[in-house]
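Entry 14. Structure prediction run on the chain below.
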Amino acid sequence: MTAQGPAKPSRRSRLPRIANALIWLNLCGLAGTGLMLAWRLPPGSRGGRGLSVLGWDRHQWGDLHTWLSYAFLVLIAVHLALHWRWFWQVAARKRRWPLLLGIGGGIALAVVLVALPVERGRDDHDHEPLRQRFRGGRE
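Output returned:
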């Protein structure tokens, strides 16, 4: 604190605060859209056909949720870049291999999930009624 009032935060200290605030807001948006999709806009097979919130249907809210998740990944990468020194000084204080293993394992998991094969499933309209499926075809 100076005689003129509180000290103005430096640019170096403002950037992590801004990034953290954006991460928090993004996480709240992800949680909100995810819960809305799960509870308020169920898939059509569970009675959700024709439902909308603020004029957006389930697919439009799902698109927003997807783009928020992409933004979250970018913001987390920025956060990690801003705090890289902490990782090397604190997280990998004695041994660096656990940190490198964790980072490498996370990247490998993401690559494997993206590379999984995509299969064509049955059309939703061609499935047997649930009662028949659970009773072994007997009604």
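The CA atoms of residues 43 and 71 lie 25 Å apart.
Filed with the rest of this week's runs.
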